[in-house]
Design brief:
The complex is a heterodimer. By secondary structure, chain A is of the alpha/beta class. Chain A has two domains: about 100 residues, Winged helix-like DNA-binding domain superfamily/Winged helix DNA-binding domain (Arc Repressor Mutant, subunit A, Orthogonal Bundle), CATH 1.10.10.10; about 220 residues, 3-Layer(aba) Sandwich (Dna Topoisomerase Vi A Subunit, Chain: A, domain 2), CATH 3.40.1360. Helices cover about 40% and strands about 20% of the residues of chain A. Chain A has 13 helices and 17 strands. In chain A, the strands form six sheets. A six-stranded mixed β-sheet of chain A has the order 10-7-13-12-14-15, with helices on both faces. A three-stranded antiparallel β-sheet of chain A has the order 9-8-11, with no helix packed on it. In chain A, strands 1-4 form a two-stranded antiparallel sheet. Chain A is globular, with a radius of gyration of 23 Å. By secondary structure, chain B is of the alpha+beta class. Chain B has 22 helices and 16 strands. Chain B is globular, with a radius of gyration of 31 Å. Chain B starts with a helix and ends in an 11-residue tail after the last helix. The chains are: A alpha/beta, B alpha+beta. At the A-B interface, helix 1 and helix 2 of A face helix 19 and helix 20 of B. The structure holds adenosine-5'-triphosphate and magnesium ion. The site of magnesium ion (MG) has 6 residues of chain B, from helix 8 and helix 10. The site of magnesium ion has 6 residues of chain B, from helix 8 and helix 10.
Chain lengths: ~375, ~675
Amino acid sequence: MAKPTAKKPTPVEKKLVSVADTVISAAGRSRDPALSIPVRSLANINFNEKRGIIEMGRRKQERTLFNVGMAKKFMQTVLVADALAELQRANLTTSLREIYYRTKHTMKDSHENTFDAQNESDPLIEDLEVTLTALREELHVRAENAGSIVGPVVLTDDGDRVDCARLGKGGYSVPSIVEPEFIQIRRCTADFVLLVEKGTQWNRLSEDKFWRRYNCVLLTGNGQPPRGVRRLARRLHEEHGLPVYVLVDNDPWGYYIYSVVKQGSINLAFESERMAIPKAKFIGLSSADPDTYGLPRNVGIKLNDKDVSRAKELINYRWFQKKPWQEEIKRMLATGLKYELDALANKDFRYLSKTYLPKKLKERDWLD
Amino acid sequence: MRAMAKRTRKSKAAVKSKPAPKSKRELRSKAKSKAKPEAATAKTPATDPKAAEAKTPDAKPAKPTTTISAVEMGARQREISVSEFFTKNRHLLGFDNPRKALLTCVKEAVDNALDAAEEAGILPDVLVNVEVAVADGAPPPPPSQATRFRVTVIDNGPGIVRQQIPPIFAKLLYGSKFHRLRMSRGQQGIGISAAGMYAQLTTGKPVQIISRTGARAAAHYFEVQIDTKKNEPRIVENKKIDWEHQRGTQVALEIDGRYQKGRASVDEYLEQVAIANPHVQLVYRTPEAETREYPRTIQELPPQPKEIKPHPYGIEFGILLRMLHDTRSRTLAGFLAADFSRVSSAVAQQICGTAKLSPNAKPRNVHGVDAEALYKAIQSTKIMAPPSNCISPIGEKAILHGLYKQIKGDFYTAVTRPPAVYRGNPFIIEAGLAFGRGPDQAAQTPEAPAVPLAEGEQQDDDNELARVIRYANRVPLLYQQSACATFKSVLETTWRNYGVVQSRGALPAGPMVVFVHMASVWVPFTSESKEAIADYDEIRKEIRLALQECGRRLGVFLRKRERAKGEFRRRNIFELYIEEVVEACARLKGGKFPKEKLKNQLQKIALKRTGGAKTDEILGHESGPEGLPHSIIVTPEGTEGEAPVPPGAEPSNGGPPEEPTPTKETTKAAKRKSKPSKRKKR
Ligand SMILES: Nc1ncnc2c1ncn2[C@@H]1O[C@H](COP(=O)(O)OP(=O)(O)OP(=O)(O)O)[C@@H](O)[C@H]1O
Ligand SMILES: [Mg+2]
């Protein structure tokens, strides 16, 4: 790692300092200091049909200091920018939680804290990401390590060679920052990437050495895949031409996870550029599978109200407008049931690795 | 003591020693409804044979089972002694229980002292001493346990001439205020003698009086008791003594009583007397030997109320009959013009015309149907409202002073309504309001709690309800609150309109005292015990209007304060955040960063965006209670408005003042709009 160099500010540090400049120049002109922050919501994204990714719109929101409703957020944003700049100068990475603790203190002569909970500081980091167009990784903020990889891939991490085929069934824990500066992909002989939603299924497949038989990379993000996992899948896809298949529960949340991997997220639409894998395929579970694979109705779970409304939301997303997807979601709503991957165990403990996936892959039975 | 007057008619008629008073007042106190002739006479005592013969409806035989003959019944008739009557009807006079009895004794003596001094044009100085008494040399129990007390009240009034002392204190229904239509505290000539009799009944001790009419007169000491059979004073002791006071009266009573603080206590009574009578200097020595001083804050007497003749609208039929009988006028028209207020000879002629009676008729000969016609004619004739100079309201300034002096608050206001009339009686309603806890208290409970509130936590809700203090002719009313028109009007007022919390049908909530005073030549009470004001529409309306005006002013004050507080809080927030932002910017920029400059620039913007200097002003730092007449606003920085000058607040060259006084203005400055010293800019 490079030694901290106070003299040569990184480009990101310069961007962070610009927040202070905004304040200073406004104050000099007796103006209310304002930060223009791109709006991170469904209303401010475009789905680029041609590229198959979600892009951020132009809508911005002014965050000003002298507005009772925004004053605190403004102050907090400046504090977070300061903490992030400190990271740059020290060339350290840190977690969201540490940023929270670093910026939290009681304000002078008051009983008020700068931050009361981490959920106040987290979104501000995202605000700065979009405002300064700096990636989370560039800001040196990492998420929790919550992903695993196993398969015929050799990586270098901090100079250590990591052969993901020789790490037993536990595999390698995917760090949150997998940018080429930190992780290099030395060798990859796999034929495809299988990104599994749930750790339990990933364990099943790893245990069964599914990756060996089908020569693939097994990835999981334990739920919504963290940035590191998404980014690594993207790199394998981009740098080594591996197709990516996504295996999730058959419920609206599973669909959404797939869509984030494929098109990017609404919240951090500007990151799609580097994260999205527009060619990723949805391998299952599909709402058609229970029929195809003879899963009994009694291993299904009734959709709750939230599932139903979420499904109805998804059905309107521009990236779910393809006919097969409309059918997929409508079918789920029609049966009123959702199925977990685990339900496949109803047939056989190894049904997933022995029957289900092989059949799917063989028949190229997936959704795009 | 109206009660006695009413109830003692029987006994009075019986007590032959006293000529039946030709009293208008007495009869007035009868039924409140328009009295029918029967009603007026049906109560005539049976001992008056003429009346019984003439007016008792004869048709009604008593229960068929009764076999008592008229002779037997006649044999049973006997005089009812005042003592017997009194013992049986103590409650009518306020002696229902020992606690109330103690209050009533204090009240009767204090009311008399104030009445006497005021009537003589003297600024009253009153000392009240209540101490534990013991029957037989036993060690005195603590006041809360004691059952016997000695009440002494000393005034600086005109004193009482020697020969009047025994009947005043030991003869029921003897007084100077009964036979006139004039506003005063006492009315019936029974108060102090009833207290004396209560003492006599419970402890057997005579009333002790010292009175002196001037520096050159001797002080007379009396011990008197009532001969309860004859209702005549019995002098136990009488001598000239040396007395340290040059003029005035001292009354001492030893009674069975109970001393308990709190609601409707002697303490509360005297405190409320002080509020409504800021021209009085009152010292109260409690049974616990504590001395409470209520200094005089208004140095002038209220204007003397004038005596008036009755107004024809308010008159009851029985009274009209009596007046017709008693008048000195020779003609009916002359009688009407001379014996009533607001009846000119033209109006008199008109009344006679309407009644189809000759203006020259002899008043004495107008009775029966004619009298009824006359009565009706009076009611249907348009007559000017009675003069109101017979009423002496406390006045807005004095109420303000009284409230300000006795009640801690942030805001005070007072309203005196113009005179109005109910049933021919002129009256004036006054209302006042004290709101808040005062700056000292507020400082003790800072707005920002020491610990930031967690989710779900809330500031303690204040369930305190407003206190209503009620007065009739400057006398505090301590009992039967909910029966009182004043209290009902407070409930009826929609305080929510003025920014005060109020649940349905309840008193407004908050640190608030509501003051209501009714001044009248005749205050209509709901019962004999003079505890609650009756519910006349005209009275209710006046009270409501007065309360609404007070409420409006309070609303203005609260709104202004709220707004100013909001701005102030905003600016505080900004100042807090500016600090953080400046520090963060300095760190971001690194090196020699001009922190102060940035801070000043930002603070200037903050000030500009939060109402600037105006906030200070609204908070009351720079100006008085703008637009709020007869109001006082108290802030930690001082007092604005018509606040009284506490005695001793005048700049003195002596040592440091014993206590920091809330205001430093002189009287003149206070009358003008005061400009308190410039507050340091934050
Ligand atoms: N302290 C006093 N100084 C001078 N005169 C007094 C004093 N106390 C009583 N008097 C006179 O004695 C009279 C009788 O007093 P008392 O209290 O019995 O009746 P009241 O005050 O007229 O009416 P009420 O029964 O309503 O009190 C009064 O009218 C007053 O003239
Ligand atoms: Mg009296």
